[in-house]
Design brief:
This protein has 362 residues and is an alpha/beta fold. The chain is 27% helix and 20% strand. β8, α2 and β9 form a beta-alpha-beta unit. α2 crosses α5 and α6 packs parallel to α8.
């Protein structure tokens, strides 16, 4: 999780809570004297490139010009709500707005989706709500955070991952999923229909516990809603006070011209737009591990490009390489997650392109 040369405090066998993670990032900002160069609260409404210059316009109408544009937005940008047929009379929220489970006390809750967010929300809310139903349209592979107290992500060895093919590591991950959550099938959790790893693995400790205690009811996708009644595709119904949409996100790139949006064309090395000059995307990535070190590698590579220490090939070659890289990702992970990468190998490939720092004489 931590950045290179920046040790994170706390207990390494525990997941960092929000305040600890925020403090860690802010300490880096202060130690590098970055804060005085940050301008926050300037919301970009539109960006256009002409004559070698990017012009950004804020939602207040102010314009600023830059040589290059780096979009450090991530894939979890704009919450996506599930389309529902009918009118729901209760409260609806996206999992991105979820904070604590106590507000759901004595309420009937339906959670749509069973990725990590859906599982975590359902597992926590089940301790307080009158009832919790999870609507699962597409079953996903899942595992717990720990096995016998041992954090499972400690098994993610970058050195090993660089030499062992993904096809073999996929089988190992599938085995861990079966070992830690496979028993939930008898409680109604549907069996995944896609290859393990083609979706982000759902990770939760709270959800399996709640399912085993009988606190969560599993249903198929929602057919329609009417008032406080939810009807599912199998014909069953339930009533609900709240619907939580754990249904993913849209890319927050609507401010870019349509031809410059990353969902239209594969990116060179997953970063540089091969058809639009001086446009880079840092953090627009998914992986079966924490993303901070991947974003760090992308940022370092981009900085070297802007310094002129890494030279981009001609645009036609960038397009060809980007398409080849996209084809490899498709073979490894399918087509549902175009920004999903094999983390260790991807980081290594970016580091290989960066110039080596000269040795310091002693």
């Amino acid at each position: 999780m931590q950045l290179s040369g920046r040790r994170m405090g706390g207990r390494p066998w525990e997941y960092a809570p929000h305040d600890e993670m925020l403090g860690y990032l802010e300490s880096i900002v202060d130690s590098e004297d970055i804060r005085q160069r940050l301008h926050l609260g300037w919301r970009v409404a539109a960006a256009n490139h002409a004559d070698g210059v990017w012009t950004l316009r804020s939602d207040g109408g102010e314009e600023r010009r830059y040589r290059a544009l780096i979009c450090a937005l991530g894939v979890n940008g704009r919450p996506r709500l599930a389309p529902l047929t009918g009118h729901f009379a209760g409260e609806q929220l996206h999992s991105a707005s979820y904070r604590t489970p106590e507000r759901f006390k004595d309420r009937d809750v339906v959670v749509i989706g069973l990725g990590t967010s859906g599982g975590e929300v359902a597992g926590e809310v089940a301790e307080h709500a009158r009832s919790v139903v999870v609507a699962v349209r597409t079953p996903m592979w899942a595992m717990t955070r720990r096995l016998a107290g041992f954090p499972l992500d400690w098994l993610d060895n970058p050195t090993l991952a660089r030499v062992v093919p993904w096809s073999m590591r996929r089988r190992t991950i599938a085995g861990l999923c079966t070992l830690t959550t496979g028993g939930l099938r008898r409680h109604g959790i549907p069996r995944p229909t896609r290859r393990c790893g083609d979706d982000i693995i759902a990770i939760s400790d709270a959800f399996p516990r709640a399912v085993r205690r009988g606190l969560i009811d599993i249903r198929p996708g929602i057919d329609r809603v009417e008032g406080d009644e939810i009807r599912f595709t199998d014909g069953s119904t339930t009533r609900a006070d709240v619907i939580v949409h754990a249904t993913g996100f849209e890319l927050p790139t609507e401010f870019l011209p349509a031809h410059a949006r990353p969902d239209k064309h594969p990116l060179y090395h997953g970063i540089a737009h091969p058809r639009v000059p001086d446009l880079y995307f840092v953090g627009l990535v998914e992986a079966h591990r924490a993303l901070l070190q991947i974003a760090e590698a992308q940022a370092a590579w981009t900085a070297e490009v802007l310094r002129g220490r890494v030279e981009l090939p001609p645009r036609a070659q960038q397009v060809a390489v980007a398409q080849k890289e996209a084809g490899r990702r498709s073979r490894d992970f399918g087509d549902r997650h175009p920004f999903l990468v094999d983390a260790a190998r991807y980081i290594a490939s970016l580091r290989r392109e960066r110039p080596r720092r000269p040795a310091v004489a002693t």
